[in-house]
Amino acid sequence: MTFNSLTYLGFLFAVVATFWALPVIARRALVMLASIVFYASWDVRFVWLPVVVAGVVFMCGKGMQAGGRNAKRWMWIGSSSLLVLLAVFKYRAFVLENLARLGIQPWHSGSWSVVTIAFPLGISFYTFEAIGYLIDVRQGRVKMPGFVDLCLFFLFWPNILSGPIVRARELMPQLGFARKFEPRLAFEGVDRIVWGLVQKNVIANVLGTWVDRGFGGPPVASHSTLDSWFLAIAFGLQIYFDFAGYTNLAIGAARLIGVELPENFRHPYHASNPADFWNRWHMTLSRWIRDYLFFPINARWKGAPGPLYASLIGVMALVGLWHGAGWGFLIWGTMHGVYLVTYRAYEGLAVERPALKSSRLVAAFWRIATLAGLAAAWVPFRAAALAKTFSVWSAMFFRFTWRAEYNALFYTVTLLVILFCVIEPLVMGILREVEEQAGEGGPSMFRIVFRPVAHLLGFTLFLVFDQGYSQFIYSQF
Amino acid sequence: MLPDTATIQEAARAAASELTGKNIKEGQKLVTSGLIDSLAVLKLISLLEKKLRIVIPPETLQPEDFDDVALMVETIERVGRTPR
Q: Based on the domain organization, do A161 and A219 belong to the same domain?
């Protein structure tokens, strides 16, 4: 059941209607059942996996809570076990494939298909939640709940596949489902769901057809400079609207049952520099990396430049690999690490030369360089092979030709989506203002006319652009 | 022995104001509002250590432990210690 399918929307309607009809005491059982059914609808063979993750966290958490010298050891045992589990499912094939290229073949008798195993969806997301949970228990930020509570935390259907990556202290207290129904929850939930469906089906999928053609087939080598830049930018827009659409659908579904999930995006292409981009893009992953990797490493070295730069590149390379087992992801992450190092080095320079900080020209340079750098980095992320990456980069930066080989619609749609990205904060701000003015009480034009019409229009667009089955990009990670 | 709560509170407000160049008020969010990032939190910790003549071991801390003045006070009282 993909979030943008009629089957899922029917499932969601049934679960939400039943949820509010049930007494509080029975709601947890319903959400648990719905979560299991949802996860099993993807691959029934892996329903046990989040339960095993909950088991590891439960056992190690209990060990930590017993205190004493072993607390730290339990945290490491738990985190390592979870990472091994992730590695087995996600990185095994990649490691073996690269060993084979070097002539090392650990399985002498079997073919490579023997060692290929299916990939459980969402494993990267709930493994990170689990490791964060263990560290939070170790730091005394959360108490260990019961095993069933933990299972519900990891299986919770709105965010199990692709986040947002939640902290135990923000989701766990809400899983009692004691909140009373308010019309606001339904309005906000449906707002997010309809907008998510439009982002996915109307914007991301439409751009995706051209992007797939551009990155997928052999003619990449013949792309002009113009087409290569458009292709890289179009993929940057596709992945943003795809993932933001998914996140809106997740946040909306949770809100329909009274649960607040954290936001994941804040107009990322409005970033003023590479560091700002990571405060706006996949914010719950950035927060996880900051809290459990980047901050502890740099706190140890008091933010000294050498360890800072090394940790930025190392951590971002890991972020790349977290997305997928492939060289393209590793290159993408490392490029972001290099961008961040460059920006931090500039910040160090700007402390000694304050004129740099106040210069509009320098600020404009960082804004443009960030956008160009982002487009260049999306190329290895999307291209199926390194040869394609180098061919697109070559056209973007070295082999200048300006032929336009796509039909005019591709360039027009991409430019329109760019324009929408530019005005998106303004549009969202106006909508927020109109809603605030409408207030909580009585009927208003906004509530009676605008909202239902917008929902109807959005849902119609979703149906018109529905391609039957279309996977979200981030559900592969 | 750690300084009293009022002294820590005043030092926290002063350190946050010095770092951001703004007059930081009680309850004003620093990290979650994006006013400072995790590297600035490390500088904030150094400033607090200097002002209060204490040590704040960072191993068990997260940037949001310094999100506002009240949280800074709570964090320092929880993990801060006087230098040996």
A: no
Q: Does B84 reside within a domain?
A: no
* Partners of residue A357 in chain B, C-beta under 8 Å: none
In chain B, how many domains are there? 1
pLDDT tens profile A352-404: 888 888 899 999 999 999 999 999 999 999 997 888 899 999 999 998 888 88
- In this structure, the answer to whether residues A48 and A114 fall within a common structural domain is yes
A136 and A240 in a single domain? The answer is no
- In a domain, residue B56? The reply is yes
Partner residues linked to B81 by β-bridges? B55
**Are A298 and B42 in contact (CB < 8 Å)?**
yes
User: Is A134 in the same domain as A274?
Assistant: no
Domain that holds residue A142: 6-178
Interface check for A290 against chain B (CB to CB < 8 A): the answer is: yes
The reply to whether A317 and A455 lie within a common domain is yes
**End residue of a domain, out of A116, A145, A178:** A178
Q: Which of B34, B58, B64 sits opposite A299 (nearest CB)?
A: B58
Cβ B42–A291 below 8 Å, yes or no? no
Using beta carbons and an 8 Å cutoff, which residues of B are at the interface with A? 34, 37-39, 41-43, 45-46, 58-64
Count residue pairs from A and B with Cβ separation < 8 A: 39
ipTM above 0.85, yes or no: yes
- Position B63 in a domain: yes
Is the peptide bond between A380 and the residue preceding it cis, with omega within 30 degrees of 0?
no
Domain count, chain A: 2
User: pTM of the prediction?
Assistant: 0.91
